[in-house]
Each structure stands twice: as C-alpha cells, then as structure tokens.
Please model this.
Amino acid sequence: MSVLIPDDILQASNMTEDELKLEIAILLYQQGKISSGKVRAWTGATVLEFQHELAKRGLHINYDVEDFQSDVRTLQSMGLL
Model:
C-alpha cells in the first residue's frame, strides 16, 4: 500500500518529501506503532542518525525490559555474556 501526499500539502508543510517521511516515521515510532528498525529501513537513516533525530526532539529510544532480556539472551547465545 502506498500513500499519496498531494503536492500542495507538501508545499504547505514547508518540508521536503524526505523530511515529511521522517516526521511521519518518528510520530509512528513515538506512538509505539513501528520499530526503530522500520523507521530506519523506510527513511534510510542510520542508527546514529535516527538516535540524533530523537535526541533533537527530546525523545528516547523505546527499550523495555523485554528488549533487554532479548538482548541478554542473544549475547549469551553468542558467548559474550
């Protein structure tokens, strides 16, 4: 599915297409609707670029206990813990 944003809306927003895409992606991320990986894949941002965008906006990475436990299991399976 694709969403078409009319040119007049893009012009009224005073943003480029990439800027608007990033705004939408960060809004969805902030609401917990998409992951940081999805944001980066859609916008082409690197991990550091994404983290920088969040920091500029006073936002934080969505990282909960379940994420932490998953990371611990992964590190253990790799023999790093």
Q: What stands out?
A: The chain is about 65% helix and 0% strand.
